[in-house]
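Reminder to self: tokens first, then the designed residues, so the page reads top to bottom the way the pipeline ran.
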């Protein structure tokens, strides 16, 4: 059995060696590509040394085995396309111009703010001045009323001084109220149109505060009602006194007529 295996091995060994030799001669020794480079730019690798083939002709690298790719990358490292530029510090003149620009912008902004505030303040003052002048002008009586403010104001002042003189030796309440009451009454007698305008102006300001306006209306209603009652009673008293005087006069006339 063993002799038969040895004889079989001896017979098959030459055939295997021959097949390997034939395959070595028949197999291609070069890698084929779909698009081969032009022949004029490629020289045969046998002409140049291995180092020259790697460094000078990149097309010959295609013919080498893949184990040589690392060597080619080591000898020819890829160059980076984008290189970070080193930071450039600005010149002193640029820094000075930047600081001057910031200072000018700061001054301009604050100057504009101050100008706007000043214009707003002046506009407010002019508005109040115009409102004050219009209010004072509205208090004056119209020309058709033939009412003159200057002499009438002097008369009111004299009347208030007379009231203070009258209440000079009285208590503090009378000394505070009598001059005002006398002057107020004189103003309504001497300057009725002006006092009516003043009352309308005061009423417009009182309407802004409902509590004051309501109390004012109540007091005004009470005063007007008192004044009407006083006038009515005065008329009744005047009529009664006229009748009494007429009766006394008729009695006197009859007594004188009888005495004759």
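Designed residues (260 positions):
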């Amino acid at each position: 059995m063993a002799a038969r295996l040895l004889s079989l091995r001896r017979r098959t060994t030459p055939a295997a060696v021959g097949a390997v030799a034939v395959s070595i001669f028949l197999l291609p020794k070069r890698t084929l590509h779909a698009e081969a480079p032009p022949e004029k730019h490629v020289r045969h690798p046998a002409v140049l040394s291995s180092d020259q083939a790697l460094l000078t002709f990149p097309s010959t690298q295609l013919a080498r085995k893949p184990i040589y790719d690392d060597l080619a990358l080591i000898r020819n490292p890829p160059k980076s396309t984008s290189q970070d530029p080193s930071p450039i510090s600005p010149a002193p003149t640029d820094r000075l111009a930047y600081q001057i620009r910031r200072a000018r912008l700061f001054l301009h902004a604050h100057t504009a703010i101050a100008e706007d505030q000043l214009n707003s303040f002046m506009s407010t003052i002019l508005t109040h001045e115009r409102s004050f002048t219009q209010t004072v002008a509205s208090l004056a009586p119209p020309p058709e009323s033939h009412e003159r403010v200057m002499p009438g104001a002097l008369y009111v002042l004299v009347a208030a001084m007379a009231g203070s003189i009258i209440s000079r030796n009285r208590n503090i309440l009378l000394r505070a109220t009598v001059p005002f009451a006398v002057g107020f009454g004189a103003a309504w007698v001497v300057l009725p149109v002006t006092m009516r305008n003043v009352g309308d102006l005061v009423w417009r300001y009182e309407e802004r505060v409902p509590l004051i306006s309501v109390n004012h209306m109540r007091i005004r209603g009470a005063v007007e009602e008192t004044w009407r009652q006083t006038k009515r009673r005065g008329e009744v008293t005047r009529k009664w006194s006229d009748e009494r005087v007429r009766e006394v006069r008729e009695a006197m006339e009859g007594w004188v007529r009888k005495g004759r």
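Residues 224 and 230 are 10 Å apart (CA to CA).
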